Amino acid sequence: MAGKGQQVASVWSMAHVGWPDLQSRSILASMTTENTESRAVRRPAGKRRIERIHCMTRSVHLVALVLASMVLPLRVSAQTLTLSSATIEDLNAAFDAGTLTSERLIELYLARIEAYDQQGPALNAVLWLNDDALATARALDAERSQTGPRSPLHGIPVVLKDNIDTSDMPTTAGSLLLAGSIPPDDAFIVKKLRDAGAIILAKLNMSELASGVTMSSVGGFIRNPHDTARTPSGSSGGTGAAIAAAYAQLGIGTDTGGSVRGPTTSNGLAGLKPTHGLLSRDGIVPLALSFDMAGPMARHVYDVAVMLGAMTGIDPADDATLKSEGASETDYVQFLDAGALSGARIGIARDFLGADTEVDWIIEASLEAMRNAGATVIDVRFPQWLLDVKGDWYTTIRWREFRSQIRDYLATIGPEYPKTLAQMVERSLELTSTTPEGGTPNPTRWSLLMQEEASGTLEDYEYIAMRDYGLPMLRSIVEGLMDAENLDAIVYPTSPTRPALANGAAGGAGVPSPTNIANLTGFPDLIVPAGFTSNRLPVGISFLGRPFSEPRLFGLGYAFEQLTKVRRDPGTTPPLSGEIIRR
């Protein structure tokens, strides 16, 4: 397998195959991990070389199981589960029963990365693998046997978007402009995860510098495992694809204007954009600190709740976390309530329907399920003027803050890297072709760098007016809308349309995106799978709440998930031999 500081490079691409597909019956049928692959790219300090590598796991045959459950999260018996259907609770039960070790769990996930990231569907989600992962797992297994687990995350693998600092692997934000950069320390939330016993397994591809098309100049384009002709959405597209394809139990994305929530819905996952200030932004490459939030992504609402509780806490390096004092929890699992919809008052924001008939149908079916569970559903609408201007309001803050705040991050890395946005623009203009190291120009994102550089400063009257008056007014309007109807949450399709084709073709013109409302207000947004379109593309539903209402949102989202149980595995990444969890 690829090691720490190694980039996973494409060997070949396979034609898109639908779901269910013939590929699931034949992929890698004759391959084993005993074979040596020329497919790892090592990038220490921005250098690249092809190496012959051996799989880090034991000789595990990479044979796709031809099962009726290839797209269903099947429970074979009350005590036996497939890997993708197992929650953290299930994994810990297996650890306790002695039927699973963390080392074995890491081997299972590494085998899936080996099988599907650069072969088969070639999702291209992984940039760097941590070659200490197996050794760390063995140490955590020994610790468990001697002193018990540190937390529910003890020995659980986590994958990170590549704009989140790790002291032992590169953090490039997917940009050749930062190629090879090793941060001086872990991000605050990464340290919290490691302290809880989680294993950082990989760093993931992303939309470069957390904006633009779903590709990076370091890693290229990312593919959606439900349909490789479709986008996984951005900017946390690598996290979305990796978790849907079961490369790890948990993932982290970042969200400035929808970048956790887009990939969550496009890949059929659960995920959360937390209340602004609930998690520290320290050690995350900034896009706009007024909006930036890291967020957990997983296949199950239960796992999202576990992961969030491990990352909360006041960080002296991030004043925004002071807002969470007295309002955060370390255990959100306690709020998961299968009966939470009974008596709930749910607003449906109909402003975001009408772009895709099939998405609309799934949302209407979801609302009916909520009514049948005892919820009252009320139609609500945002003021039209707000929907008309919110994009400009967002850009007024976002572009200026990136121009200013990226300097502070660049000051923390080596002297060989740009130190201002202007220098990033200058260096990007020198990268007009593919590089010997395998990099790819990203003209779309690099053109945006020029617009951000020309946008203005944090002293501009437009920025000050928007920060001091526009954003507080928007928060007041949205909270007032909830108060007027005594709502527990407002729901809407996380994306009004199904995932777009990767070639840029899209539909739904005329219907605004709902996602940046949660960023402009700083309010939390929990996404839960809602269903599939006729061409088997996932649709998610958002639960928008008041500040620090994550406990209530988890209750509602978990109740909806348990009521509907619509999540399905992607057809392009079926189970491999031996992927059974016995608890």
Could you walk me through the main structural features you see in this protein, from its secondary elements to its overall organization?
By secondary structure, the chain is an alpha+beta fold. It has 2 domains: 6-334 and 567-582, Amidase signature (AS) domain (Amidase signature (AS) enzymes), CATH 3.90.1300; 341-523, Alpha-Beta Complex (Amidase signature (AS) enzymes), CATH 3.90.1300.10. The chain is 32% helix and 15% strand. It has 15 helices and 19 strands. The strands form 3 sheets. The chain has a 14-stranded mixed β-sheet, sandwiched between helices. A 3-stranded antiparallel β-sheet has the order 4-5-19, with helices on one face. The protein has a two-stranded antiparallel ribbon with strand order 9-10. Strand 9 and strand 10 (220-221) form a beta hairpin. Helix 10 (384-410) crosses helix 13 (461-484). The longest helix has 27 residues, at 384-410. The protein is globular. Residues 1-77 have low confidence and may be disordered.
What do we call the CATH homologous superfamily of the largest domain? Amidase signature (AS) domain
Class by alpha and beta content: alpha+beta
Question: How much of the residues is beta strand, in percent?
Answer: 15-25%
Strand order of the largest sheet: 3-2-1-6-8-7-11-13-12-17-18-16-14-15
As an assembly, this protein is single chain
CATH architecture call of the largest domain: Alpha-Beta Complex
- Quick one: overall form? globular
Task: Give the C-level CATH assignment of the largest domain.
Answer: Alpha Beta
Number of helices: 15
The tally of domains stands at 2
- Please report the distance between the alpha carbons of the first and last residues: 28 Å
Overall average residue pLDDT: 89
> Which blocks of ≥5 consecutive residues have pLDDT under 50?
1-77
What is the share of helical residues?
25-40%
